[in-house]
TrEMBL record:
Gene3D superfamilies: 3.40.630.30. This is N-alpha-acetyltransferase 20. It catalyses: N-terminal L-methionyl-L-aspartyl-[protein] + acetyl-CoA = N-terminal N(alpha)-acetyl-L-methionyl-L-aspartyl-[protein] + CoA + H(+); N-terminal L-methionyl-L-glutaminyl-[protein] + acetyl-CoA = N-terminal N(alpha)-acetyl-L-methionyl-L-glutaminyl-[protein] + CoA + H(+); N-terminal L-methionyl-L-asparaginyl-[protein] + acetyl-CoA = N-terminal N(alpha)-acetyl-L-methionyl-L-asparaginyl-[protein] + CoA + H(+); N-terminal L-methionyl-L-glutamyl-[protein] + acetyl-CoA = N-terminal N(alpha)-acetyl-L-methionyl-L-glutamyl-[protein] + CoA + H(+). Catalytic subunit of the NatB complex which catalyzes acetylation of the N-terminal methionine residues of peptides beginning with Met-Asp, Met-Glu, Met-Asn and Met-Gln. Proteins with cell cycle functions are overrepresented in the pool of NatB substrates. Required for maintaining the structure and function of actomyosin fibers and for proper cellular migration. It comes from Hydra vulgaris. Residues 2-154 form the N-acetyltransferase domain. Its EC number is 2.3.1.254. Keywords: Acyltransferase, Transferase. It comes from the Eukaryota.
Length: 175
């Protein structure tokens, strides 16, 4: 049985099997530790019965608390190739959405490569919509755009946060 639990510092030495995927962004240790220190409730792992990390999600709450821009953000979601198609990504996403509801967020957003059809379709099945296209979002690949995908939460009664923009933006225009 898979266990979903909070990420621990020592997990940084055990999740190479997840981060070796070419679509997973690997960050430096200070980046992970910053998330763990500031938003520990948003940093979760899926662990196998044998104690192996099967996948993880890292996110945060951001925006202005008193405005409709207050939202949960998925910084990274990754599942090791050997554990895909088990529903782990959906479980991790639901956990982040639940935390965002508790924090009174209006929506959850994430950025995904425009070319990553499998991920885009998974997010759509989870209720996310393409809010806008961000041109040349990925610094290592200037030809790769990102979709900014969003899902409205219960606080966004009129679902204003997910009304798509009709024009693309550049990374410096993303707030």
């Amino acid at each position: 049985m898979t266990t979903l639990r909070q990420f621990k510092c020592e997990d940084l030495f055990c999740f190479n099997n997840v981060n070796l995927d070419p679509l997973t962004e690997t960050y430096g240790l200070p980046f992970y530790l910053t998330y763990l220190a500031h938003w520990p409730e948003y940093f979760q792992v899926a662990e196998s019965p044998e104690g192996r990390i099967m996948g993880y999600i890292m996110g945060k709450a951001e925006g202005h608390l008193a405005t409709e821009q207050w939202h949960g953000h998925v910084t990274c979601l990754s599942v090791s190739p050997e554990f895909r198609r088990l529903g782990l990504a959906a479980s991790l996403m639901r956990g982040l959405e639940d935390i965002s509801e508790i924090k009174k967020c209006f929506f959850v957003d994430l950025f995904v490569r425009e070319s990553n059809d499998i991920a885009v379709n998974m997010y759509k099945k989870l209720g996310y919509v393409i809010y806008r296209t961000v041109l040349e979002y990925y610094s290592g690949d200037p030809d790769e755009n990102a979709y900014d995908m969003r899902k409205a939460l219960s606080r966004d009664v009129h679902r204003k946060s997910v009304i798509p923009l009709s024009y693309p933006v550049r990374p410096e225009d993303v707030d």
